[in-house]
Amino acid sequence: MTRVLQVSAELFPLLKTGGLADVAGALPAALMAAGAEPRLLVPGFPAIRDALNHECAVAPVALPWSEGRAALLRGRLPGFDVPVYVLDAPGLFDRPGNPYADAAGVAYADNHRRFALLGLAAARLAEGVDPSWRPDIVHAHDWHAGLACAHVNASRSRRRTEARSVFTVHNLAYQGLFAADKFSELGLPPTHYAVEGLEFYGQVSFMKAGLQFADAITTVSPTYAKEIQTAEQGCGLDGLLRHRAGVLHGILNGVDYGIWSPENDHAIAARFHVGDASGKAACKAALQREFGLPVTPDVPVFGIVSRLTEQKGLPLVLEALNDLIDAGGQLVILGSGDARLDAAFGDAAARHPAQIARRTGMDEGLAHRIYAGSDVVLVPSRFEPCGLTQLYGLSYGALPLVHRVGGLGDTVVDTTLEDLAAGTATGFVFNAFTADAYRRALRRAFALWSRPEYWARVRKAAMGQRFGWDEAAQRYVEIYRSLSQS
Ligand code: ADP
Ligand code: GLC
Question: Closest ligand 2 atom, CA of 253?
């Protein structure tokens, strides 16, 4: 069985800022079911450190700088059937709140050290510091873990390990860029600072380290795998990605239906399923009540659960707000992030208190209640590597209205007449990233709403979709196997 170390900065349910956590939380069980032997490596953030039990010390980790201390611990985390390694370095990780930034949202000045050490710890495990378990594959997620690929590569050159690495891009737009003078603190051989290494226009790029040094690269949908090879979405790395296209795979994320099914979700007002969606009406009424909106079954509720950031296309929603209002819809927004976007939705809610309501912050339970109670989830992202919220919308019968980009286009089928007739339509998809195209999709949603029989038919098709983890996990395992045999 291939032993694979999953390296991630986030882990649902303990620490989450976005979809990365959901993926990292769901993968271990899926990989086990697909015949691999996964373990996890995560930084010792307070939420993780506090939850760790049955812990034992594995080994100290030597720091490439002078002050501080770090050690690898092994233990168990609730909800995970596999042992977990925690990089315990209180000076670096024992900070409240977000893993990457302080309370004011400013990235920590020592992020290069914090995440270089995560990569270094992964390489130590690949070298066998835990005599009881040594990975064949190190699988690193996003830039935070990108240096794991560089460190494993360096260890291999020194003949300290035979392990290979896989790097998954969850979002190419976040790259982990640092000033060149930080390179000396990363613990890497000087040759790694090169155009064929992690140098990126005179800076250090953790993302590029992953892309350059991994033995295989994956990203989270087939379409995004193509998009990132173009200048438009390549974030300056498209040349490298085209060069490595032979080892680049687009593998669509799955949904953990143990958590995201209206059938057995106890965070929502009533249970329902594809065969009997009547409980959804109770969820909708409860949601309207919770948000202080008129409890009316006959108007469509549009829901947004989102990081508030440029990526998510929310300015389109603001620009076309009047269309939604004039057509009589209700809109509920749960978001955290950009203060200006938050304020704009706050103003809109103040102007239209009977139709728009907003909550600020991260609230896992409320997110479930929004998917369950909404008729439509809005995901008009400018770009979207995979997107999970549209998949959760499908599961809960909230038809996704999405921009045809990345994983959104791979997972939602527009309600055209043909797809409606064929029973394959599951939502609303617009092509151009313009307010006008978005408006037209909104109009299609209202048009379908006015024909309840058809709405019910599309909702049934949506709820019947299955994006389980089995297929993705199998593909990862195939990649691991092919690398460990090479
Ligand atoms: P991204 O990772 O780019 O933010 P995804 O669609 O992959 O986008 O995943 C977003 C995840 O974060 C989903 O689980 C979604 O429910 C959750 N989420 C986003 N914003 C919030 C919020 N404000 N409160 C609770 N959950 C949120
Ligand atoms: C990133 C992407 C999102 C994807 C998630 C999990 O946060 O923005 O599209 O679903 O990672 O892979």
Answer: 12
Ligand nearest to the CA of 218: 2
Q: Give, using CA atoms, the residue closest to atom 22 of ligand 1.
A: 362
**Assigned token pair, 300:** 């469509």
Q: Which atom from ligand 2 is nearest to the alpha carbon of 173?
A: 8
- Over residues 246-303, the pLDDT tens digits come to 999 999 999 999 999 999 999 999 999 999 999 999 999 999 999 999 999 999 999 9
The CB of 389 under 6 Å from ligand 1? The reply is yes
Amino acid at 471: E
**C-beta of residue 374 within 8 angstroms of C-beta of residue 281:** no
Instruction: List the alpha helices (DSSP H) in 19-110.
Output: 19-33, 46-51, 90-93
Cis peptide before 13 (omega within 30 of 0): yes
Q: Are 208 and 177 in contact (CB under 8 A)?
A: no
**pTM surpassing 0.70?**
yes
Place of tokens 């990126």: 200
Select from 364, 381, 389, 410 the residue to mutate for testing ligand 1; criterion: most ligand atoms less than 8 Å from CB: 389
Phi, psi of 101 (to 5 degrees): -140, 160
Q: Is the CB of 303 under 6 A from ligand 1?
A: no
- Give the CA radius of gyration of the chain: 23
Q: What is the pLDDT of residues 126-180, one digit of tens each?
A: 999 999 999 999 999 999 999 999 999 999 999 999 999 999 999 999 999 999 9
Domains of the chain, each with CATH number or no CATH: 3-254+469-484 (3.40.50.2000), 279-463 (3.40.50.2000)
Ligand located closest to 379 CA: 1
Place of tokens 């795998």: 225
